[in-house]
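Protein: Xylulokinase
Species: Caballeronia telluris
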Amino acid sequence: MRFLGIDLGTASLKLAIVDEDGREIAFSNAAYAVRTEHPGWAETPVDDWWHALLAAASRLPAAEREAVRAIGFSGQMHGVVLTDGRGRALRPAMLWPDTRARDLLDAWPVPQVNPVAPGMAGPLLRWIALNEPALLDEARWALQPKDWLRTRLGGELGGEIATDPSDACATALAEPSGLWDDALIANLGLPRRWFAQLAPSYAAAGTLSAEAADALGLKAGVVMAVGAGDTPCAALGSGLCRDGDALLTTGTGGQIVVMSHDAPASVAGLHAYRAATDEWYRMAAMQNVGVALEAVRGWLAFDAWPRAYEDAFAAQASARVSFLPYLSGERSPWLNPSARGGWLGLGLSDTRGTLMRAAFEGVAFSLRAGLDAIRSSGATMTTMRLAGGGSIDPRWRQLLADALKVELHAVDCPNAATRGAALLGGLAVGHWHAGDLATLAPSATLVATPRDDAALDERHARFVDLYGRVKDWF
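Structure follows.
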């Protein structure tokens, strides 16, 4: 018996097949482009997603595809696909990096339990209502990306139109529980009929159509789970299932996720969302991790990452050189889209290794700012799971442990969100139950133990002080 996980990401679609014990036995992916026809826009035609799915599926072993008995979904959060009554997209999908609705956030009451960003479905749909008003009457559904893909797999009529609390609560159109906020939707001038009914992430929501099954090499009638957002799916796939379990992911951005049995208290700069199970999670979301380090590597003309790591960690850390990594603004905890970055304290004797080392420390300190906000909300953490392609080098891992003051345990699961989606498929058909999730957690290896480092603590204090001094310059 096999279960297929589909992770519809921003720049690529990933597929993983897991066996009856939750072990990944096959994986494939296919990339596509995010289109930016105008500055600040971020769109993808849904046909690009469909063709990527077909390409990725064709690379999976045929025998494993034949054995799939359920499908689960993970998807990029916040964006939106506007469709007609048959589930056909009326325009390209609008995605979370899109900032065209930046000046429309005044319609949301302040304060909000969760921060509202321009690329969330609510602001994007408000932009459509104001700039593409003909779609108000033509559209039937405003779907999250993974929900559009699931309905497409169910057939032209869309199968069962549904979404889950983990995606709904991140639209800026719902309560933290995921229930749609009817009053807010009406105040924004959006049709209430656009928004799908809610169902648990692990609930069954239709079956695979014969047409889609033939295209993918699967059996028709395979049960499909509703699915969840990529962050809660990654948490599930990484083994977070108990109150207080924590995960650090380092990719283009960085996220710190902490599971909570009860609804977390509201804290400025943090998110409190529903998990893929019936739990909750606190989240600090930092925009500038891999994206900032990659920019620095290019500026300093390191031709490859191994040399950048070597020079950075061979260099003596400077007591006076600090790097603010906020090259694209920042979310947690500052909520400052205008924040910008750079080095401060440079001298003629500083080398590119010094600058690269300061960049690594600055990113680590920005993650610490998000973690400190979570700690201030009452969560206590001394151990975190670690995932993400940007956290492989052991020297970088040690710096993260020292700056964050936590033990880091690398998760043996390279495709956590895709695996989490597959687990939801198994839950939907009753192969697993909620009580089984702890036993399905992947192994995690201790890779870094925090060390007392007074000099690093002083550089962290300098970093926080400098941000406070320059945050209003831009």
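Remarks: Residues 239-412+443-474 form a domain with the Nucleotidyltransferase; domain 5 fold (CATH 3.30.420.40).
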